[in-house]
Design a protein that fits this description.
About 40% of the residues are buried. It contains 21 helices and four strands. The chain has a single domain, classed as MetI-like (MetI-like fold), CATH 1.10.3720. Strands 1-2 form a two-stranded antiparallel ribbon. By secondary structure, the protein is mainly α. The N terminus is likely disordered. It is about 75% helix and about 5% strand. The chain is globular and about 65 Å long.
């Protein structure tokens, strides 16, 4: 490892792939808006019961949607991240796409998805699929970035060993990629579930103008109780949410974290490894041992054989014939050209005053996002390092961190605003704190993952050499945490832009309170059903986030892959 010094790689301008991807996204957003206009005028409204007896069923429905979205996120992560990390040609297209997708604000994207699907599918099916897809959009991006970061920082010795043993693609995935990325992927999976809970209220109950969409679930229960001011129902709803989180921590995440200890790159065993009584019980069970030996292991062997046949050793791809490329690109270019023309017509409906409001809001939100990010980094860097390095502290603090990260901050906004709106600056300053509530966890979970993955040998060597204080931070902690900080910062800024929509335009005291910001513009356009302004504001936010990712964060990603790899 090297001393923490930043030497930025050479500037890389936008490529043709970036332009093509941006055009494609614009066309898709426009198509969604056009389909939204064809959706039913008023959706069938489902009544959400606030009786506590409904909570077990509602909790089961919400966990089911979260699990379905998580499975989709895993499949997307393994497929998309692997191709982007292992193919330089594909990376030039897929990473710009990922930058764009994670920058699209979910609460701006939500009405387009729901109304588009409602135009072509039965309403109940469309709303259910929309809920799962939108939870997926809050889970997938940080997992994919973490997977990509892990694959690009695999030590050279391990990559050479995989080549020497001639591992095919499936064997490389099972024996190298997945074990190396397990720790980071687990911590980001916990963050993904927390992010899913954060947006669950929005994805299960949503109103666009006169169109009312709602699904029975824990998120809808909490939002219905909050809108009625039913403190008794809110108490039961939050209590159920906390119980679900604690159960998941006890029976899922903590056993997985203890199991992942085997994948650390270290020769010395940690002084206080992660432990789980549930995992110890599973290992001590003779019945489960018999099932593993006679059912699970043979199934895995059969899966290995099938996947090795489906994914043989990769061969160099032949360059496609020119006529085939033209055959594929011609209709795509024609569709993109028509889409750009149609988008231009819709954007012409946005008047000069609205454009001025969008750009003024962009500057205001940009300042809030970066202030929230710097404050979050100052808080999470020492806190995450302390938790990740001290297993005893982690055992005590981690459940509370998961609970705090998983509680939908939108449910706490009225309580927070009651105090913050009385301070100087009003919502203009309070919105920074509200954005911080939704972005702090992306950095914290990634930093905890990086700290827990530091090999015991390096910590012991630092202690033997007497490297302490700032010198240890400079030579050990900051270089080891640098890739994880970049991953967390990228997803945190995306989360901050998303949170701006609910932080700059909030319901308080029976009336809406807003401040100057791009999030407020998107929220107001969504509530009013002003699709041209919604499209203009969303594209402005997307272009801003993509530009930062392309010219700033991507360089730091390359720096992490080139200089801060443990090998």
């Amino acid at each position: 490892m090297q001393v923490f010094q930043i030497g930025l790689p050479h500037r890389r301008s936008f490529t043709a792939a970036d332009v093509f991807v941006l055009v494609g996204l614009c066309v898709l957003l426009y198509a969604g808006v056009r389909l939204a206009n064809l959706s039913p005028a008023v959706a069938e409204r489902q009544d959400i019961a606030t009786d506590p007896a409904s909570l077990p069923w509602y909790a089961l429905l919400s966990v089911g949607r979260m699990f379905a979205a998580y499975v989709l996120s895993l499949l997307f992560t393994f497929t998309y991240g692997t191709v982007a990390a292992q193919s330089r040609r594909a990376q030039g297209v897929l990473m710009p796409v990922l930058d764009i997708l994670q920058s699209v604000p979910i609460l701006s994207f939500l009405p387009v998805v729901i109304l588009s699907l409602a135009a072509v599918l039965p309403l109940n099916v469309a709303v259910e699929i929309s809920s799962i897809v939108l939870i997926f959009t809050s889970q997938a991006w940080n997992m994919t970035f973490a997977w990509y970061q892990s694959l690009t920082t695999i030590p050279k010795e391990l990559r050479e060993a995989a080549s020497i043993f001639r591992l095919d693609r499936w064997q490389r995935f099972r024996m190298l990629d997945l074990p190396f990325a397990t720790i980071s992927l687990l911590w980001n999976s916990m963050m993904s579930w927390a992010g899913g809970w954060f947006f669950l209220m929005a994805s299960e109950m949503f109103t666009v103008g006169q169109k009312d969409f709602r699904l029975p679930g824990l998120g809808a229960y909490l939002q219905e109780a909050a809108s009625k001011g039913d403190l008794h129902a809110m108490f039961w709803g939050v209590g159920t949410l906390l119980l679900v989180i604690v159960c998941l921590d006890t029976f899922v995440w903590r056993p997985l974290l203890a199991w992942s200890e085997r994948f650390k790159l270290e020769m010395l065993e940690s002084e206080s490894p992660a432990q789980s009584w549930f995992l110890d019980s599973i290992r001590a069970s003779r019945l489960l041992g018999w099932l593993f030996d006679h059912a699970l292991d043979p199934s895995l062997e059969a899966l290995d054989q099938v996947m090795s046949r489906l994914l043989p050793s990769s061969k160099p791809l032949r360059k496609p014939a020119r006529w085939k490329a033209v055959l594929w690109l011609a209709p795509l270019c024609a569709a993109s050209a028509y889409g750009l023309y149609a988008i231009g017509e819709m954007l012409l409906q946005v008047n000069a005053a609205q454009w001025a409001g969008i750009f003024l809001g962009l500057l205001a939100t940009l300042v809030r996002v970066w202030v929230a990010l710097l404050v979050a980094l100052a808080i999470t860097l020492p806190l995450g390092l302390s938790i990740g390095l001290n297993q005893r502290l982690s055992n005590v603090v981690l459940p509370f961190v998961q609970i705090l990260a998983s509680i939908p901050s939108t449910a706490l906004f009225p309580v927070v605003l009651l105090v913050l709106l009385k301070l100087p600056g009003g919502l203009a300053v309070a919105s920074i704190f509200l954005m911080l509530m939704g972005t702090l966890w992306y950095l914290l979970f990634n930093i905890m993952a990086g700290a827990s993955a530091i090999p015991q040998e390096l910590k012991s060597m630092s202690a033997i050499l007497g490297i302490n204080g700032w010198e240890r931070w400079k030579t050990l902690y900051l270089p080891a945490l640098f890739p994880y900080c970049i991953t967390g910062a990228i997803t945190a800024t995306g989360g901050a832009w998303n949170a701006s929509i609910v932080a700059e335009y909030v319901l308080f005291g029976g009336d809406y309170v807003s401040t100057t910001g791009l999030g407020a513009v998107i929220a107001q356009a969504t509530a009013a059903g002003d699709y041209p302004q919604l499209l203009a504001a969303t594209l402005t936010m997307v272009l801003t986030v993509v530009s930062f990712n392309r010219f700033f964060w991507r360089r730091l990603y390359r720096l992490a892959a080139e200089r801060y790899v443990m090998e």
